[in-house]
Design a protein that fits this description.
Layout (H helix, E strand, L loop, with lengths): L4 H25 L9 H13 L2 E2 H8 L3 H13 L3 E6 L2 E9 L1 H22 L4 H18 L16
Antiparallel strand pairs: 1-3, 2-3
Helix pairs in contact: 1-5, 2-5, 3-4
Length: about 160
Amino acid sequence: MPERADDLAAVTSAVLTATRLLVGIAARSLGAAADRVTLSQLRMLVVLATQGETKLVTMAELLNVNPSTAMRMADRLAGADLIVRKVNPLNRRESLMRLTPEGRRIVDEVTARRRADIGAIVARMSPEQCRALVAAMNAFNAAAGERPEEGPHPLGWPEG
């Protein structure tokens, strides 16, 4: 935690600037998929890609939206054959959702574009800056309760 208010302001300003950059990267990464999904719908697809089959109520909580909003998003994505919804066999009042192969393809394509854009920026940083960025982002993500990416380290070098 920063010791002084001006330290907190400097950290907040740096994160807001990075957020502006990352939102731009996220929007551009939609590319060819933009005619099929909105950024909000992509969030649902990404959560399904990460979580696997998910209850509609759980999805609404994860996206921090009302269940009715999650239902409308799911209806549109199901109509576009990007997700499959079915009744939960263990509780017939619940809906379960999962990605279709086309939904997975869109997530993978958008993620690859985003990864390439971020990689191009990171490539202009020194190894020391990269290590510091990894440590800072991991701490930031942990403080927010965000789970790390699965698999090998996403930037290709060891943490530490």
